[in-house]
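Async update (no meeting this week)

Hi team, since we skipped the sync, here's where things stand on the single-chain job. The sequence we agreed to prioritize is pasted below, unchanged from the tracker. I ran it this morning and attached the output directly underneath so nobody has to dig for it. Comments welcome in thread, and please keep replies under the output.
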Amino acid sequence: MLQEVIQAVRAAEAKAEEIKNNAQAEARQLLRNAELEAAALKERQLAEAEADSRALLLAAEKECEQLVIPIQERAAQEREELLAAARSKQEAAIALVMERIVKPYGHS
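Output:
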């Protein structure tokens, strides 16, 4: 009878050890799966963040282009006005030089 109790205890201990080992193996597998899932999630979120940042950058560039167009147009208009003013003054300056230098010496 004592022998049977000892065998039952040993069998229970062996079963407990097996259950413990199985639980540890399952826990390790769950941990590995969780790590893989976390890495995949991280990659997806990183890809989404990069796509979002590219979209924001493109939108900002388009907005900047729209802001720059009127400035460029205004600068071109001012340049043309300055050129026109310079041309009109150039004609007047040439006429003045002709009047003051060339005519007195008779080389007209």
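Quick observations from my side:
The helical segments are 2-102.
The radius of gyration is 45 Å.
Reply here if anything looks off.
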